[in-house]
Specification:
- This protein has 353 residues and is an alpha+beta fold.
- The protein has 5 helices and 23 strands.
- Strand 20 and strand 21 (302-305) form a beta hairpin.
- Helix 2 crosses helix 4 (56-70).
- Keywords: Membrane, Transmembrane, Transmembrane helix.
Length: 353
């Protein structure tokens, strides 16, 4: 019996020592940043969201180092259920892992684009827009106030853009072959528009400015504030060859125009703003990975990115094209994770639904 008491006392002493050691250990929030970085870079996109929500310290670390993480991760393909009773969105990583997300208010609506991490849903019958961020789950409603204007989803395009002049986000809508651009400040419900002298083929936000593309390769700059205006830019030369269905695409410091039709994807021209001229991409010798949105889903969503070993990562999306070493990847829609936080403070200026 004395021996048992002795063992019990020893066990209690050991347990107390262990508890003491645990209490004196540094908390998770004080984990060495070098170790945190190694952990973060091993995570997938979905796990990174959970990682950033562990504690304030980890969130601060994730925000400060998110650019390093983002550029190492390829985009995810998006598929949205067409069943009005399901209202689900699926984001798929290149490893095949899927994230299923509920999309409120998505019934009888069409996704017409992705901008700053938000899926842009449009209802033809209700003539309104719902913007939903599938990662942050933030959403806001933008009912279209021009009741005499009706859009057809496959011809519709929309973007979110930050305006430094008003220090706020602006939701911009356009339709192919129309002469008007409609926009609304995200924190308000007052729509207005600006007229273009030419039909609009595409619209793109690039380095804090908005550009429109018109027939015969005309290019304009759009100013929304303080007075809405579309100004035709004078370009010295014309791109050769001509485009059948031109669209903007940007990468880093460069803005390009390319053809939406897959047979002519190698027709790419850069816009040199310092010299105000078109430059053939053949002269630059650059090679990229192109992520294209299925044209059947509406206005072609096109993006240029660069990651290592893209062919092995996206073999199931890859399709051949006569354009050297470039890689082209086709999906119904692409979600670029690093855009998810571009409008992270958007919820501060709009009413959450």
């Amino acid at each position: 019996m004395a021996k048992i008491r002795s063992i019990t006392r020893d066990q209690n002493h050991d347990d107390a020592s262990i508890r003491k050691k645990i209490k004196t250990c540094d908390p998770w929030s004080d984990l060495n940043h070098d170790v945190l970085y190694l952990i973060m870079m091993k995570l997938g996109v979905i796990d990174f969201i959970a990682f950033s929500g562990v504690c304030k310290s980890w969130r601060s670390f994730a925000v400060c180092n998110k650019n390093y993480f983002m550029v190492s991760k390829p985009p995810m393909s998006i598929s949205i259920s067409t069943d009005a009773d399901e209202n689900k969105c699926y984001l798929e990583e290149f490893e095949g892992r899927k994230l299923k997300i509920s999309l409120p208010h998505s019934d009888y609506k069409t996704c017409v684009g992705v901008s700053c991490g938000y899926l842009i849903l449009f209802g033809e019958k209700s003539n309104d827009f719902w913007l939903v961020n599938p990662i942050t789950r933030h959403e806001f409603h933008a009912p279209f106030s021009f009741r005499n204007v009706s859009f057809y989803s496959p011809c519709l395009g929309a973007i979110l853009v930050f305006s430094p002049l008003i220090s706020g986000w602006v939701f911009v809508v356009f339709a192919i072959y129309y002469h008007k651009i409609w926009f609304v400040i995200a924190s308000k419900q007052e729509w207005t528009y600006v007229s273009s002298p030419f039909r609009i083929l595409d619209l793109h936000a690039f380095k804090g400015k908005i550009y429109t593309l018109h027939p015969i390769n005309r290019l304009s700059e759009v100013r929304l504030f303080p007075t809405p205006k579309v100004t035709l830019l004078k370009i010295k030369n014309s791109p050769i060859p001509d485009f059948n269905y031109p669209a903007f695409v940007s990468f880093g410091e460069n803005l390009y125009v390319m053809d939406r039709i897959s047979e002519h994807l190698s027709n790419i021209q850069e816009i040199n703003f310092s010299k105000m001229e078109w430059v053939s991409r053949e002269k630059t010798g650059e090679e990229y990975a192109f992520f294209l949105r299925n044209p059947e889903q509406g206005v072609g969503f096109i993006r240029i990115e660069s990651w290592a070993d893209l062919h092995s990562q996206y073999g199931k999306y890859y399709f051949p094209c006569k354009s050297g070493e470039d890689r082209f990847f086709l999906a119904k829609m692409w979600y670029f994770f690093h855009d998810c936080f571009d409008a992270s403070f958007l919820h501060q200026s709009v009413k959450t639904c």
